[in-house]
Design brief:
Mean pLDDT: 91
Distance between the termini: 33 Å
CATH topology of the domain at 529-732: Cytochrome Bc1 Complex, Chain A, domain 1
Radius of gyration: 28 Å
CATH class of the domain at 529-732: Alpha Beta
Strand content: 15-25%
CATH architecture of the domain at 529-732: 2-Layer Sandwich
Helix content: 25-40%
Number of strands: 27
CATH superfamily of the domain at 529-732: Metalloenzyme, LuxS/M16 peptidase-like
């Protein structure tokens, strides 16, 4: 299913979420405190709150079978989040049997005793929810966010796959998902530039057999070796309720939730006893040099030192050290590598996992100075020496601590985030809420602590030095390779011989009956205020008191559309320059001021807009807006900044074309809109157009188009409207400069349907897009109705095209179709990354699915699923400030009244199957569509000839 994230630090606190309240001492009991508790349910801890610290209130229970249940009430929105976290990841696997935990993440969506194949996803979708699963080295979690009336159904679903899945894990499903996992590895690792970086680093950093010495997705040869009973045995060992945490948060009634949890999960028997893995610090005897040849443009250097583990006493000072060395424009790595032109990007991080942390120094070489990573390696060493000589300043500590506080508070905005945090902390530390604990340990870090951990773990210590270089250029490595991972000892590897049986479970109810949903919650569209100033600027505000934060989006229409086509990238480069030096502030001084406020200001230009995004704590808003005033109206436009950014953009463009998905997107845009239109080129331009841009062009673009004439400001957060208008007075006094956005040149004729082949030598998969021009966005017209029509074809995971290509055939990790529409442009596309050997087969299946849908349309069952999915999901639409802001920007972009959502709901509930199928017949003729394939032409050309279309070789300019 979903990607498996690596647990990261210092970012652990940006993922922490909670309520801005304090916790009272946790009450721990061994007997039920309430006669209302179901039989067999014990209250373990109750965590309440007062106004003096940051925490997430909860109640923790345990069922007789060992399942831990954590409940958090939040009645601010009519939705719930359900999370089942198992304390099993790739670290629980055996040598030679890698990838099992991730493999079972896939299998858990393939049906169980009382839930048909692929029915889990369909049920959640029909409930108006979203769901996924993720695996990392230490845990696997499965989660759903749904309207509150759907909670019982979600508990039934999760319990069924916990207790009743093994009989449904058939050899056929096993083989299909094995192919799906291989496709995922190909798409996300083998076919991606730098995709094998983490795997190669882990092989060198950890001892042979260490649970972190292989990647979560595992090795293909291990997946090929095992059988279905090996997988079942792994499940029986690790997926019992006693090794799981069920966390539920949102608009819940705890007494009712406990009855449901005990009903559905209580009869499932405990699994084997699970002990926590032993934590031992990893060390290296000598520095290991590793070279990886890859399909990349820019050489990359990564130096990794082994350190501690999550919540070790030295973790927090190591995180602070990483922040000082390599986070943002105030860091030494930025000064010595990026600003000085040695690297396009450079950073330092300290990602942590349950058993080990890694202190990573990373840089992408800048060919302007040198592509030889030995130069970068020398700069790393010089920077560390400079840090040691310079020491830790008060600003260093304050920036880091305020940044942690700010990111923590911004993380308090969603039930999903709070539930995920409670689940993770309970799984690893047996204490769901550790928000204040984490804040306290970071606040306690001193300059002496930082220097101490630097000397203990980093200074002159052995490391893994990984050089990633273009194929055939090992001479660019930092040093000659001196380490090759020892061969894995697989002589004693055995497979499971006996058939693994499902445990017998006795219920006092009929588990095969799917619970019904309660009454649908009433969802109100957020209220907001709107004001237009004399200069044309529109201000929209929405007061939200859930967290003391403010988010501002300032949007100027035009953006890249205003670029001369021979200077495509001008708007983007201008926005980048606005992030640089201002009059009176150096880059570093401005970055330091924002960091000390816990705020951010960022300019970018994408699609149709130049946008300024501002995030601030409420207490820092006025000071942050004063800095926005400085950045917006007093840019310095220094030649040195311009040359550095222009060169960095050029290197990024050259790197992008190593990515097959980027090549496919470029090819489709060119064929849809033609070379005479700006929209056929990337927002950042091409190497040729970028070379045409001068600093004077930047100044002219700023003078002409940074204007309130076609602009709006959306503010969401803890605001007082009157005070806010006073704080934004500098915008209301801004003089407008009217400008026009030119119409497009004529689009190219579609011509006969052909297959365009973009050669990507060495590609491991084929990136395929089937497409045609179509209507731009509309809220209630044909384009909107086409999206409804598309739902069953390819608009959801359980759609026809995805179930065919991913679940039935195993040709891809995922396939989808969609109608994409903006203010003035629109198109239809179907896309998939296909196995190389099945490229032609996959394309044929895509065309066949589109053709059948064109001829016969959707079924009544699919129509009802679409209706439920679109109407039930309103409860999830406006939960966070970001979602509220997105809704407001949408209204402004398309000049809509908020009542349009009610009109859409009426259309969804009343549109007929015949109308939708008539749309499919009108739009989805495969013979009106073109095909782009990006892959290794020497391998796939013969296959493609069998499709029956003329093959036209296409070269994408960059």
């Amino acid at each position: 299913m979903g990607k498996f994230p690596v647990v990261k630090k210092i970012l652990i606190l940006s993922a922490i979420t909670g309520v801005l309240v304090a916790c009272q001492p946790t009450n721990t009991v061994t007997q039920p405190l309430s006669s209302n508790l179901p039989s067999g349910v014990t209250l373990i801890a109750e965590h309440s709150a007062s106004p003096n610290s940051v925490s997430i209130p909860y109640k923790k229970y345990r069922l007789e079978n060992g399942l831990t249940v954590v409940l958090h009430e939040d009645h601010s929105d009519p939705l719930v989040r359900v999370d089942v976290t198992y304390h099993v990841g790739s670290a629980r696997e055996e040598v030679g049997k890698s990838g099992f935990a991730h493999f079972f993440e896939h299998m858990m969506f393939q049906g169980s005793k009382n839930v048909a194949d692929d029915e889990h996803i369909k049920i959640v979708t029909e409930a108006g929810g979203n769901m996924n699963g993720t695996t990392n080295s230490d845990r696997t979690n499965y989660f759903e966010t749904v309207p509150a009336n759907q909670l019982e159904k979600m508990l039934w679903l999760e319990a069924d796959r916990m207790g009743f899945i093994l009989d449904s894990v058939t050899q056929e499903k096993f083989e299909i998902q094995r192919e799906t996992v291989k496709n995922e590895r190909g798409q996300s690792y083998d076919n991606q530039p730098y995709g094998l970086r983490s795997e190669r680093n882990s092989e060198a950093l950890y001892p042979v057999g260490h649970p972190y010495s292989w990647s979560t997705i595992g090795y293909i040869e291990d997946l090929n070796r095992v059988n279905v009973d090996d997988l079942k045995a792994f499940f029986k060992r690790w997926y019992g309720p006693n090794n799981a945490v069920l966390t539920i948060g949102g608009d819940i009634q705890p007494e009712q939730v406990l009855r449901w949890a005990n009903k559905y999960f209580g009869p499932i028997p405990s699994g084997p006893v699970v002990d926590n893995a032993k934590k031992e610090l990893v060390s290296l005897d000598e520095t290991r040099y590793v070279t990886l040849e890859d399909e990349v443009h820019l050489p990359l250097l990564q130096v990794t030192y082994p350190t501690v583990y999550v919540r070790h006493e030295d973790e927090a000072p190591l995180d602070v050290l990483s922040n000082i060395l390599g986070s943002g424009k105030t860091s030494l790595f930025y000064k010595n590598l990026v600003k000085d032109g040695y690297a396009v990007q450079a950073l330092v991080s300290h990602p942590c996992q349950e058993l080990a942390c890694e202190f990573q120094l990373i840089a992408l070489a800048n060919p302007q100075n040198s592509t030889n990573l030995s130069e970068i390696y020398k700069r790393f060493e010089q920077t560390l020496a400079e840090f040691e000589a310079r020491g830790v300043s008060e600003d260093d500590l304050n920036r880091t601590k305020i940044g942690i506080e700010s990111s923590t508070i911004f993380g308090l905005q969603s039930v999903s985030g709070k539930v995920s945090t409670l689940a993770s902390n309970q799984t690893f530390d047996d204490e769901p809420d550790m928000v204040q604990y984490d804040l306290d340990r970071y606040n306690a870090v001193t300059a002496e602590d930082v220097m101490r951990v630097y000397k203990r773990y980093i200074k002159s210590k052995p490391s893994v030095v990984l050089s990633i270089v273009p194929k055939g250029h090992t001479e660019l490595a930092a040093k000659a390779a001196n380490f090759t991972p020892p061969a894995r000892k697989l002589d004693d590897l055995s497979t499971v011989k006996e058939h693994i049986e499902q445990a017998a479970i006795v219920d006092d109810f009929e588990r095969s009956v799917q619970p019904s949903a309660g009454p649908s919650p009433v969802v109100d569209v957020p209220d907001f205020a709107k004001k237009t100033f004399d200069n044309g600027l529109t201000l929209v505000t929405l007061d939200s008191k859930e967290t003391p934060t403010v988010s501002i989006s300032f949007n100027m229409e035009g953006g890249p559309l205003l670029d001369p086509i021979d200077k495509a990238g001008l708007a983007s480069l201008t926005a980048q320059m606005m992030n640089e030096t201002t009059q009176g502030y150096t880059n570093e001084e401005m970055a330091n001021q924002l960091a000390l406020l816990g705020s951010s200001i960022h300019f970018d230009a994408n699609g149709r807009y130049t946008t300024v995004r501002v995030s601030s704590l409420t207490r820092s808003l006025d000071a942050t807006l004063a800095l926005l005033n400085k950045k917006l109206f007093h840019p310095a436009f220094l030649e040195s900044d311009f040359l550095r950014l222009k060169q960095r953009t050029a290197q990024s463009l050259q790197q992008q074309v190593k990515n097959p998905s980027v090549l496919a997107s470029r090819a489709v845009s060119e064929l849809l809109f033609g070379k005479d239109n700006r929209v056929s080129l990337p927002d950042s331009g091409t190497l040729q157009t970028l070379d045409n841009i001068t600093l004077d062009d930047i100044k002219t673009y700023y003078h002409n188009y940074y204007s309130p004439a076609k602009a709006n400001v959306v503010v969401v957060g803890d605001i007082e409207p009157k005070a806010l208008q006073e704080s934004l007075a500098f915008l209301s006094g801004w003089s407008p400069k009217p400008y026009e956005i030119k119409d497009y040149a004529k689009f190219p004729d579609t011509g006969k349907p052909v297959l365009y082949l973009v050669d990507k030598p060495g590609a491991k998969q084929s990136v395929v897009t089937v497409f045609k021009r179509y209507l731009p966005y509309d809220a209630t017209g044909e384009q909107f109705r086409s999206k409804l029509m598309n739902f069953a074809l390819g608009g959801v995971f359980s759609s026809r095209i995805n179930l065919n290509l991913r679940e039935d055939k195993g040709y891809t990790y995922g396939a989808s179709t969609g109608f994409i529409g903006g203010k003035t442009l629109g198109w239809f596309d179907a896309s998939a990354d296909l196995k190389q050997e099945n490229t032609a087969d996959g394309i044929q299946e895509m065309l066949n699915e589109i053709s059948v849908y064109h001829d016969k349309g959707m079924t009544q069952v699919e129509l009802e699923l679409m209706r439920n999915a679109f109407t039930q999901g309103d409860a999830l639409e406006y939960e966070t400030p970001a979602s509220k802001a997105g809704f407001l920007r949408h209204l402004l972009t398309y000049n809509l009244d908020k009542s349009y959502r009610a009109t859409q709901t009426n259309i969804i509930n009343n549109i007929s199957k015949s109308e939708l199928n008539a749309l499919a017949a009108k739009v989805l003729d495969p013979n009106s569509m073109q095909i782009v394939v990006v892959g290794d032409a020497s391998v796939i050309r013969t296959q493609l000839a069998g499709i029956g279309r003329e093959i036209v070789d296409l070269t994408v300019e960059y």
